[in-house]
Write a sequence for this structure.
């Protein structure tokens, strides 16, 4: 039997009401921007971000000036992290292959992977300058071969986030806009007088951004539902409660709605971890303690399970975005777990490495979306298309006969006649498959 030492108090009903209100606000903004273009974009940017410059787009001169003001070490770090992200994305690109096979004599079928032509990259920044999201969305798009990447990020407290602009520039963005939230996502999806319509929108964001992408899906492609972040840790009796507490807080500081969950086989590890989280939030002078506490109080959970087998099962039910494994054999999770955005194996790595520096992509599925998708990767920016060619008469004629029968079984007479035509044109009525 599982025993909850701490259970989330954030109620599902409360979340539903909040979600409905987000959905209604987002719907109104999208519809207004669709009708009124740039003037609506300016109006909402002023309303939500107190930001309505003459142009949301940065000129090359502005970009150069902003980059010159970023500390040299920050620029070096941006380039080093982007090297890691690029190296991993390039390895992913190599794993995706174009191919052609001859499935029967004269019948050639092929597959090609084409980059999307125009991508809108959303780099969140309402609360923190999330420059790492620039590496993740833009570098990966460029490795995939996307020729046009428009990138948007919000101002923070009325200021341009300088290091984020540098990250967007070095990642390879073709156009950079200081514009946030639903107005940015909607403008890129529907196009305005000054913002080019894109084919696909990528990038994480808060509930408003995530819902805007959801509502616009179909009109544009989207990468995935990458909303407010989550962490889940699976720990056995050998795990260090201080490391557990530190890592739970590291994600809880993202926002007020971050689930931070510990599943452990040890009641002692569970109790110590709760005490340490509470102490660290109260006494460690963490600058983000208030936000992390709001999240931890409402969405923190600690559950003791009788065995690791139960732990893997329960962790799969959570289908969390980030899963840290602090057990004697962390690679067991690779064999046993099936639902997660990214796994962090052993105490020597952590979600913060994945979020900021290690090179795997940090745009990951939330709210159980890990049941049906992985995170952002090169493949999300590619369209896998197919083609076919029939190079001899017999093959075409035999396919024509098969097609005639198959189509008539579905009452598709027009389809059947396309097949009949080839059969009579290319087959001397002798061969049969
Ligand atoms: P954000 O850029 O996502 O959102 C800021 C924008 O929200 C603002 O520009 C504003 O226009 C809009 N907004 C704020 N309040 C609004 C309101 N009441 N009505 C309409 N619009 C409003 O930045 P953020 O808020 O700091 O959130 C970043 C989010 O990204 C966090 O939740 C974080 O957990 C998440 N994140 C997720 C992943 C992932 O892969 N899942 C990765 C990184 C970050």
């Amino acid at each position: 039997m599982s025993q909850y030492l701490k259970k989330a108090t954030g109620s599902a009903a409360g979340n539903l009401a909040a979600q409905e209100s987000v959905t209604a606000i987002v719907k109104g903004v999208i519809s207004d921007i669709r009708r009124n273009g740039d003037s609506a974009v300016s109006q909402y940017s002023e309303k939500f971000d107190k930001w309505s410059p003459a142009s949301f787009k940065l000129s090359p001169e502005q970009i150069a000036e902003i980059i010159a003001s970023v500390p040299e070490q920050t620029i070096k770090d941006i380039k080093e992290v982007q090297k890691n992200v690029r190296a991993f994305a390039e390895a992913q690109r190599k794993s995706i292959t174009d191919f052609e096979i001859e499935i029967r004599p004269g019948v050639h079928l092929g597959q090609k992977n084409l980059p999307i032509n125009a991508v809108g990259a959303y780099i969140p920044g309402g609360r923190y300058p999330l420059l790492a999201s620039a590496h993740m969305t833009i570098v990966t798009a460029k490795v995939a071969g996307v020729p046009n990447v428009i990138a948007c990020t919000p101002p923070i407290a009325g200021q341009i986030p300088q290091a984020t602009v540098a990250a967007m520039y070095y990642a390879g963005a073709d156009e950079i806009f200081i514009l946030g939230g639903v107005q940015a996502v909607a403008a890129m999806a529907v196009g305005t007088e000054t913002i080019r319509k894109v084919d696909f929108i990528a990038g994480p964001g808060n509930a408003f951004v995530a819902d805007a992408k959801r509502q616009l899906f179909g009109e544009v492609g989207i990468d995935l539902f990458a909303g407010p972040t989550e962490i889940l840790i699976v720990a056995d009796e050998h795990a260090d409660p201080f490391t557990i507490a530190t890592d739970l807080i590291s994600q809880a500081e993202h926002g007020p709605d971050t689930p931070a969950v510990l599943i452990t086989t040890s009641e002692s590890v569970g109790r110590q971890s709760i005490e340490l989280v509470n102490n660290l939030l109260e006494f460690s002078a963490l600058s983000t303690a208030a936000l992390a506490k709001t999240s931890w109080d409402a969405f923190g959970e600690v559950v003791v399970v009788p065995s690791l087998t139960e732990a893997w099962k329960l962790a799969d039910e959570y289908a969390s975005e980030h899963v840290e494994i602090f057990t004697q054999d962390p690679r067991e999770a690779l064999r046993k777990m099936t639902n997660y955005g990214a796994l962090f194996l052993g105490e020597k790595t952590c979600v913060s490495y994945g979020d900021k520096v290690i090179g795997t992509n940090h745009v990951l599925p939330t709210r159980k979306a890990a049941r049906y998708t992985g995170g952002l990767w090169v493949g999300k920016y590619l369209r896998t298309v197919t083609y076919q060619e029939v190079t001899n008469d017999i093959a075409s004629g035999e396919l024509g006969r098969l097609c005639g029968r198959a189509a008539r079984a579905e009452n598709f007479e027009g389809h059947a006649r396309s097949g009949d035509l080839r059969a009579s044109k290319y087959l001397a009525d002798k061969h049969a498959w």
User: Anything to note?
Assistant: The mean pLDDT is 95.
